[in-house]
Amino acid sequence: MAETLFFNALREATDEEMARDGTVFVLGEDVGHYGGSYKVTKDLYKKYGDLRVLDTPIAENSFSGMAIGAAMTGLRPIIEGMNMGFLLLAFNQISNNAGMLRYTSGGNFKIPVVIRGPGGVGRQLGAEHSQRLEAYFHAVPGLKIVACSTPYNAKGLLKAAIRDDNPVLFFEHVLLYNLKENLPEHDYICPLDKAEVVRPGSDVTLLTYSRMRHHCLQAAQLLEKKGLSHDPEIIDLISLKPFDMETIAASIRKTHRVVIVEECMKTGGIAAELSALITEQLFDELDAPVIRLSSQDIPTPYNGKLEYLTIIQPPQIVEAIDKLMTDQV
Amino acid sequence: MTTVPLSERPVPQIDTSDFQMTKDEGLMVYEDMVLGRLFEDKCAEMYYRGKMFGFVHLYNGQEAVSSGVIKALRPDQDYVSSTYRDHVHALSAGVPAREVMAELFGKETGCSKGRGGSMHMFSAEHRLLGGYAFVAEGIPVATGAAFQCKYRRDALGDENADLVSVCFFGDGASNNGQFFECLNMAALWKLPMIYVVENNKWAIGMAHDRATSQPEIYKKASVFGMHGVEVDGMDVVAVRKVAQEAIARARAGEGPTLIEALTYRFRGHSLADPDELRDPAEKERWGARDPIQRFAQYLQDRGLTTADELAAIDQQVQAVIDDAVEFAENSPEPKPEELRRYIFAED
Questions:
Q1: Do B185 and A65 touch (CB under 8 A)?
Q2: Model pTM score
Q3: Which of A279, A290, A301, B44 is buried most, with the most CB atoms less than 10 Å from its CB?
Q4: Which domain holds residue B138?
């Protein structure tokens, strides 16, 4: 076991997969000589050369399209979005080409491309650098969408995404890059389509992903501190598309109560879709309405206090659980 | 012959007097041009008979560009990408007329299994990267195929990797950012890329000269230190000549070329376009420059063939197209239970 920082776990995954398969390459803004804005590709160009760790001009739409063309013709590109928000500029290529082209072509081509980078709300980065694109891309057919949350799953999921023959949108979080964890020495991957039960519990199912996983764990500790006996089961969705409904349903059949905690905006968010699915498929299991705890429907403000108020904080999760468990909902 | 107005850009003259073309090459190119023309005529007929639907953009008049460039490539090896006006590029790339027609009929036997339609012809077997229906979006994809070719040689050490990628698009696309972004990257990395802009003077109703501050598109290559050349897109010999030069440069690792072919579409933008904005005199002037008639004359003047031999080819091609229609008519539709197939690679 070696203690590894989150960004280094991603770097190890990239390095190992590039060593394993010559067709794997990274491209994006400042991924080469600069090492990536969060150092995920630091010094890899020294080992693999400038072509396999390709510094691109600042032209998101075109270098994303270029990666798709390379994927269609046999390579396995990893596109780094310096900030995932910048990929709004590549929305057309990601939806029309990465997502839909295999279908439109009647199966002629596959597009094994990973599109990864930092998403989420950071610390006072302003609205444009605080996007949560997972919700924007959720409706695009043909994409797999994954959010990692720990050094362990970051490494295992990225390796699986690189080996997958489909386009995978891979969300990291700007505030998680310095998390540390002991990682196994041996090669491992994590399945892209499986949710993770982070904390078993019996009273209420907390469905969450990315950084909010850690907020939910803090909420569980707060419950204990406050002497509240509610016992939440925390599930990290990992796969935002498709949802692992098997794991989700098993938990709901046990708890009969659901709180979804997300960092994207409430309107058209991940929780909106998930809540609808739960209502459609598990209505009879529910003892209370599904609760959504989401960010405010506003551009993320720069001011620190306003920003704090924009996203969900652990006390709000505690409050929601307590209300739900005391029949105040 | 009508007079050319002073405002119209003169057609570039490329000296092809020394250009070598064997009889086999000449007839192959001629057959491909006739295939393109008669196929599109049949599409119009089938569209009006209610056999195909949606937007159908025909290529009549521009055949010298598709045949002149694609028939100079290595079949089933080099890459080709196209736009919504893609039927004829698909045919030149070697996709059988049966599969293109069946795709237009929405049948399971179509090259995109009936999922793509007129604007989305694909064939991995024939290295057709596809028809891209948003203007300019195919340019980065084709550039990616060229990157892959370079990657095989330089990163994977395959010394024999010398394939090239050709991207067709129209004058309208040349004002889009992706065009400039990709020219920059292709020139920067010396990709084996050939950009072919088919300047037919019109987007839908937007005249090229009203959409750009610099109508001579080939000159835009110079900004990127890239080779740019203009060619008479109604002269297949000239197109083939500049294409061969560009392909040789790309294979040799000398980088990309921008070819601007001055051409004209003999029909409206699509079969839904009433085509009311283009001056009849302009249409007549360009119609008189029909690339197929011109090439037929060239072949005969050079003693490479006879009128009878060409007529026989015309007949053979018509038979191929009639067979394609019959094949498309009799082919099954996609199965309803396969509605969700091909979303993911494992399907």
A1: no
A2: 0.96
A3: A290
A4: 21-328
